[in-house]
Request: fold
Amino acid sequence: MTKRVFNFNPGPATLPLEVLETVKEELLDYRGTGMSILESSHRSPEYEEVNSSAISLAKEVMGLGDNYKVLFVGGGASTQFAYIPLNFLHEGKTAAYVDTGTWATKAIKEAQNIGEVHIAGSSKNADYTLIPKPADIDFPEDAAYMHITTNNTIKGTQYHTFPDTGEVPLISDMSSDICSRQLDFSKFAMFYAGAQKNLGPSGVTLVAIRDDLLEICKDGLPTMIDYRTQAAKDSLFNTPPVFAVYIVKLVLEWIRSRGGLTAVEEVNRRKKEAIYRLVETYPEFFRGTVEKESRSWMNVTLRLPNEDLEKKLIAEAKEAGFVGLKGHRSVGGIRVSMYNAMPLEGAEKVAEFMENFRKANG
Ligand SMILES: *Cc1c(COP(=O)(O)O)cnc(C)c1O
Reply:
């Protein structure tokens, strides 16, 4: 038997075991073709089926209407930071951004290189420990779009209600919480996610764009930057990251087989409750670092009474089979990342481990 740990890495992250087993089974001879999907042409019927299933599963799982295009592209979420203003920030317009730290800040920096940016809200003064309230968000009525980051992977905050932007297209970086909960996705004119947290391996980014936004892409952009290029070709304009898309397809099938986003959300709720219970019960030992209403379900960030204890917990956790609990180097502390593929058992067991650690060291 292969020994598998509970992997709390923030991304690339743990994948469903069932998916990895299917990949292994199909690796050398993909469904009787005598070759791996890694070796197949992206124009082959086998890959076309993978690509079209991945698109239709993404739409089905998230309940997206026919007015959305789902793209699978390379370059990571970080490339989208520039592509969005390049496509949608027209001359004379302003793009609104909410600054909730690290990734949101990076998206803002890219947009500022390209055009006019309005900071519609920010939690910088609170060291990014909260999500600005809708009342604290303001934006020009004729903004080109408004950009938010639904889950802040490093700081450990997450939107639980979204600003109502009316006619202004709402665009969201959902890299670290896509498909982790049931949402009304029709609120978003566009959303995107690097796959390596909730959807699959690194190397592919899912981009969903509503037709009305797609229609207003700037003319004259380089072919590969213009979203309409891949939208018109179902992401097969050039060679796509075939292996990554194949695994995303398997992950989406896995989500569907578990009962879709409502069921996935319920498991995620129980997982985060297992960890936040420690913050509630032993606040002097497990100090939550963010405002309660802004807590992330995906990345729980904590501080212990001192750094030596944090190091000790991380080391002992690793010995016990819980890997990846170190906070991001920019913030320190402990971060428990629990994306979809982390089983409830993993969250419950690590919580038990942490509770015992407190008993021994508190
Ligand atoms: C991980 C992450 C990114 C960066 O994704 P890449 O695919 O590495 O470019 C961007 N935004 C958020 C919210 C993330 O969690």
In short: Residues 11, 76-78, 103, 149, 153, 173, 175-176, 194 surround pyridoxal-5'-phosphate (CB under 6 Å). The chain has a mean pLDDT of 97. The radius of gyration is 21 Å. The chain has two domains: 17-257, 260-361.
